[in-house]
Amino acid sequence: MSGFLDERAALGGKVAAVVGGGGGIGAGIALALARAGVDLALCDIDGEALAATGAAARQMGRAVMAMTLDATDEAALDGFYDAIEAEFPRLDILVNVAGGTKRQRLDQAGRDDIRRDIARNYGYVVQSVQRAVPLIRRSGDGGSIVNFTTIEAHRGAAGFAVYAGAKAATANFSRSMAVELGKDRIRVNCIAPDTTPSRGNMLAMPPEFAEGFARLHPAVRSKGMEMYIPRGEPPPVEALADAVLFLASDLSAFVSGTTLHVDGGTMAAAGFLEWPFGDGFVPTPLAGTLRHMYRDGEAG
């Protein structure tokens, strides 16, 4: 079966650029592509993580070019694409993973925070796609662009307003580019994760939130995920990497302009949580949960 799928996927011998491919989710994606026979051009702001990921991919026999840079630095990102053009005869796949934010209300955000959120969640994506498209066109075989957005692009994300707006822009930009590039056989899609076990997600929260969460017993920490995610657990990095493999491969040859939600069902749930103490799936806690939350709340 694996031989059949490998043949249909047709990833072997292709070249992928992964922006933010050094650590965490990006590393998982880069190494999954390498295992599928894809050569890599990687960039990341974390040079140490980037070196480790590049070394692991080379051990698999893959050609790797790696550059340490901030994707929001226009000159540095241009340099990355110049190096790809010089190093590789083709480019088939682009994955824009880099991004990030921190939780804060808009009235508490500084102008630099706002500019940074827009640049790292939308601005660099536009430049990255613009530079990648001519390189993908060189082969005449088409290609695949995968941009990371988020579930927050599809709902009102209080405390993450600028981030949510920037990611929504990335989603609609991707749909628009799918239309523009259709005749070139270049597909453009998005992946929208929700909660994932990544360092970036922890850094997005205020320190006191992260510290309080870390003090909880692991069994208690998991209860929140069981209530929030219909699957009962957050998707691992491997699940996101599998989604990229699908969208990058010929298995999705006629999938373009769409967003793939890799979230265990939270987008589908749209606010329905599986509350404990017999309340079940409802948008708001009922008597069973409320009685435990507010023990002194009963009338009389």
From TrEMBL:
Reaction(s) the record says it catalyses: 2,5-dichlorocyclohexa-2,5-dien-1,4-diol + NAD(+) = 2,5-dichlorohydroquinone + NADH + H(+)
Assigned keywords, A-Z: Oxidoreductase
Keyword Oxidoreductase: yes
GO MF terms held by the record: oxidoreductase activity
A Pfam family recorded for this sequence: adh_short_C2
CDD domains per the UniProt record, alphabetical: SDR_c
InterPro entries associated with the record: NAD(P)-bd_dom_sf, SDR_fam
Protein family (similarity comment): Belongs to the short-chain dehydrogenases/reductases (SDR) family.
Protein name: NAD(P)-dependent dehydrogenase (Short-subunit alcohol dehydrogenase family)
UniProt organism field: Sphingobium jiangsuense
Lineage summary: Bacteria, Pseudomonadati, Pseudomonadota, Alphaproteobacteria, Sphingomonadales
